[in-house]
Amino acid sequence: MATKVLFVGSECYPFIKTGGLADVMGALPKALVADGVDARVIIPKYGCLPQEYKDRMRHVCDFWMDLGCTGDHFVGVESFEMGGVTYYFLDDEDYFSWGSPYTEMYNDIERFIFFDKAVLAALPVIGWRPDVIHCHDWQAGLVPVYLRSLFYDTDLSRHAKCAITIHNLRFQGVCERSRMQAVSGLPDECFALDKCGYSSAANGYRPDGNMLKGGIVYADRVTTVSDTYAYEIQTPEYGEDLDGIMRYHASKMVGIVNGIDYEVNDPATDKKIAQNYSVDDVIEGKRANKLALQRTLGLEEDPDKMVIGLVSRLTNQKGLDLVGAVVDRMIDGNTQFALLGTGDAEFEGMFRNAEWSHRGAVCSSIMYDSARSSQIYAGADVMLVPSRFEPCGLTQLIAMRYGALPIVRETGGLRDTVEPYNEYEETGVGFSFSAYDAGQLLNCINYAKTVYFTRRHSWDAMVRRAMGRDFSWNVSAKKYEDLYRQMVG
Ligand code: ADP
Questions:
Q1: Helix/strand/coil (H/E/C) assignment for every residue in 443-471
Q2: pLDDT of 405-426, one tens digit each?
Q3: What is the pLDDT of residues 296-355, one digit of tens each?
Q4: End-to-end CA gap in the chain
Q5: Residue whose CA is closest, atom 24 of ligand 1?
Q6: Which positions ≥6 away from 272 have C-beta within 8 Å?
Q7: Which of 129, 452, 443 is nearest to 305 (CA)?
Q8: Where do the DSSP E strands lie in 16-126?
Q9: Number of CB atoms found within 10 A of residue 88's CB
């Protein structure tokens, strides 16, 4: 019998995406289904989901559910099948008809507490009992807590194992303990300090509740999205104040690096780019895409210039202060910079300024645009990913798939996936630097420029090597299957 796995999370490509979590929730179930696993996905039915999907959903069931002090709520379940995967959408007008998809933390906590309980309440009504419930990030953090407390005496709890994947430890879903307890209706013991209870210097010793922490404590297995990140989050530097709990639960932790969807991210078939190419004609293909990109972005049209790309959420995590510190020295007569991102006003302003100061050599697209992101991956020679921390990172993987060499800081998944160039042995698929330091980033960029402008043969060989690496879900999906097998026993 096929193992039954339910993915629980707040976003899933192609329905709704704000970051890498959506890519994983979209691609991993597809890869598992291809291997014979019965993988299904459940996310909220947000009002902002594209109408084309809403029109094609089928009503599965509905019922009423109580939720702590907030009373009874309607729960509707709709479903949609695509590529062998069944997607469930959990509907409640009060909670999910608004937001894009998130609102602000105060509301989101209550919305996702509702979601977590409703997922478990819905399963018997749907009539499908998973062997493993695979939760993702803080939004699904209370699923393991509910499963082992309020749902303790159910067939589901006796049968199902629970895993939680930490995509980014920075976001934990924290609010006052009294509110979390009142809304969730969870018993006192769930809020002990070694469970969902949370109080430390980082939150001013307030008595808080922490959804992700609860998930980590109550889940049978905890996974993170790279080996290095699994290690890093056990240290105070990267532990986001949960390093103690991570060390305590280290024995149930495992790091499995993300893959990327090789159908969605394929320069040979991507309709959004000017000219399709594969590893066989990558050099000509990238040249054509570079010219098209330069035209689109209003950069000087010259295929001999080096184009440095950056596609990112514009937040403090992504090392953008380092880029800001070096951008004036990075741009020279032979180098251009194409940025795509949205986020903190501080960084949006910084990159708009860079564009104004270097007209024709820098273009800052302050927007979220998947067509433009493909065009940058296809047209750029290098992609910057200088993150302060990076649990896995997909940008560097997509970059390599499109033959753009990544320049990364050696942290988390960046360290695990980008083998740095070794000029003596002609190995490696990118460039990396270790300390969080603008000087090191600039040195690294200058080294890449030297190889690009003076050793083009080596560069082109490296581009082909990068494209030849397998970052599809094939490898990682097998690791998850092993994990599920161990859990189910
Ligand atoms: P995170 O999840 O921390 O944002 P990842 O590197 O894991 O970072 O995933 C980011 C994903 O979002 C990549 O697929 C990247 O191409 C995409 N992305 C980020 N910003 C934009 C944007 N402004 N427009 C289009 N795609 C974007």
A1: HHHHHHHHHHHHCHHHHHHHHHHHHHCCC
A2: 999 999 999 999 999 999 999 9
A3: 999 999 999 999 999 999 999 999 999 999 999 999 999 999 999 999 999 999 999 999
A4: 14
A5: 368
A6: 370, 371, 374, 375
A7: 452
A8: 38-44, 58-66, 72-82, 85-91
A9: 24
**Residue 59: beta bridge partners?**
78
- 3-class SS at 437? coil
Distance CA 440, CA 87 (A): 45
Mean pLDDT of the chain: 97
pLDDT at position 1 is 81
Residue 379 tokens, joined: 């047209």
Residue written as token pair 């991570």: 246
Q: Choose one of 25, 395, 396 to mutate for the ligand 1 pocket test, by most ligand atoms within 8 angstroms of C-beta.
A: 395
Nearest atom within ligand 1 for CA of residue 318: 3
Residue 185 DSSP code:
-
Contact 185, 146 (CB under 8 A): no
Residue minimizing CA distance to atom 18 of ligand 1: 312
Query: What are the tens digits of pLDDT across the range 57-96?
Result: 999 999 999 999 999 999 999 999 999 999 999 999 999 9
Q: Is 158 exposed, middle or buried (0-12, 13-18, 19+ CB in 10 A)?
A: exposed
Q: How far is the CA of 448 from the centre of ligand 1 (A)?
A: 23
Strands across the sheet containing 197-198: 174-176, 208-210, 197-198
Residue with CA at minimum distance from ligand 1 atom 2: 20
